[in-house]
Amino acid sequence: MNPDLWFSFVAVTVAAVLSPGPAVLLALTHGGMNGPRGGFFAIMGNETGLVILIAISIVGIGAVLETSSQILTYLRVFGGLYLIYLGFRLLLVKQKLSISDAGGEIKPAKVFSPRKSYFQGIGVALSNPKALLLIGALFPQFLDMSYPVWQQLVIMGITLLVLSFTALMGYALLASKAANKAANKSGSAVAGKMSKVSGVLFILFGTLLAADVR
Known about the structure:
By secondary structure, the protein is mainly alpha-helical. It contains 8 helices and 2 strands, in the order ααααββαααα. The longest helix is centred in the C-terminal third of the chain and has 38 residues, at 149-186.
């Protein structure tokens, strides 16, 4: 792949993965509620979904979606409803706190499920068809026809996955540190409050996605 094109691709991709969206909110939510480990499983699920989107885009389905408004509408509505569903689950979750024996540190009770976090990550990634359209529109802009096309697509796909994982883990770590500091300082159910705020934001994202406002 042309090095200049690759560096340009990296610059655009960094801006994309750092911008607020459902994946960033997912990382912040799981990182804040369940720590880095919770964020990791959710992010790995999101990366799995991203792999699926990249594969679909590479084989040309992205072009089909761009020309088929009906299919895009169905996917958009389904994706929006899924995010709204996740939002209500976060609003209804009962976040219990327990006091550890060492130092009286406040910790969430054992409600964390790696499996559920992983599949939530996949669902969030696949719930937004605009991500598929973005990949389908972005990759061709950085292709150099003097190089093997498939090789360039694979390189861009791997680059996107690495940058996405790094950015989301960064968000999860920041959320975890912020939640720990707040919990140690106030002794309040910070994780429970975060779940409520995140639930509202997921419902907002889902509503905007289904209405095609974003």
